[in-house]
Amino acid sequence: MSESSDRGRDGGPWWVQPTVRSPQALLKCVFWPVAVMLVVHRTVIRAVDGARTDDFTGVYRAAVAFWNREPVYTATYEHVDPHYLYPPSGSLLIAPFAVLEHELSRWAFIGVNAAAVLVAVYLVVRMFGYTARSTVFPIAVTVAFASESVINTLVFTNINGVILLGQVAFLTLLLARRDLWAGAAIGVTFAIKPILAPLLLLPVLRRQSKVLLTAALVPVGLTALAWPWAADPWQFVERTVPYLLQSRDYFNSSITGNGTYYGLPEPLILALRIGFAFLAAATMYLLHRYHRHDEVFFVVTGAGVLMTASFLLGSLGQMYYSMLLFPLLMSVVLPQSVMRNWPAWLAVYGFLSADEWYSGRWVEAGRYAEYMRPTWGWSLLLIVVFAVLVDRRRSTRVPEPVTDPSVDIARVGRQNASAPKL
């Protein structure tokens, strides 16, 4: 082969030729290899290697015990090790993982959750009108698999990826007004854990009452199937449910969890919870005006507000729950998004970044920053969303009364045409 055959048309090597023809193609050229390698690294290397925190072993033992009709709810809740907290219906759904040997089952669990995250990201992208061939999809995959939420879900081998897929499927079907299927999608997640329960306010506000029917029937039906097979189903009611209602002071970024850890007075913790509950309720009130005219904006923003409030106000808020805010973050592509400001993304850094703030020089300050950053991130996000909506409501212009139709109707028409669509 001659030397000239290794040269491009402009005389340079072929591998540095300007083959990209548009900014969109350039972005895909950059982000696709990064996205693919992040998925492979997080799934095959980080997740398979694991970490000290192991959410899967308890789940696997419970699956084996349920499969063999042995007691499942035998954990000592005074210990800080991860506990098995799924109801009998959740035991039924994870029982197939008991067929495999522990390590193979863990790899399968990792694969299922990684695939669920990818499908969920695709559905979120589709929700905003983009396709898998768009520039947005590889960027969204990159952001997701670079986040603490996805990394630790896979490394700890948690089921949050499946919960995320259930949430996104619910929102997608809700927007499509496939009410029964939307209820079934969220109902499957209820059979595992009820973390998405606040989202049921959305079909109530949108008057899609059929959603509530299947949202209740699916977990009830799965429980009816699991209950006769389980060896100790009442132990879930008598031992596990009371534990779930308590707020622990370790690995808990909710207001109650961090407040208790740092020794805040109970009245102050209660006041903070009431204050943020009022803020969330006021935000949903301000959002409600969009529920007919801008359905996607209302649904994804409302879902983000409800989930963020539940992380802060509930008995348990863990940082990797933040992946359930992906639809809200993706709404930045909408012209009217509440995420188009820098304080919102400062908040996102707090609860989504994989950075660690432990410091060898500033030990106490570093520990405080690490423990508190998801809490202040969620808090700041709620404050920002509320502030944006308040400012938007105050700045909405009301057309002046028409006094001379022959002159003013055209002027008012031009004003309305140039005003932002709500």
From TrEMBL:
Cellular component, GO annotation: plasma membrane
TM regions (residue ranges): 107-124, 154-175, 181-204, 211-230, 268-287, 296-313, 371-390
InterPro entries for the chain: GT87
Q: Which UniProt keywords apply?
A: Cell membrane, Membrane, Transferase, Transmembrane, Transmembrane helix
Q: Where in the cell is it found?
A: Cell membrane
Say which domain of life the source belongs to: Bacteria
Q: Which GO terms describe its molecular function?
A: hexosyltransferase activity
Does this UniProt record's set of keywords contain Cell membrane?
A: yes
Membrane topology is: Multi-pass membrane protein
Hey, which family's this protein in? Belongs to the glycosyltransferase 87 family.
State the name under which the record lists this protein.
DUF2029 domain-containing protein
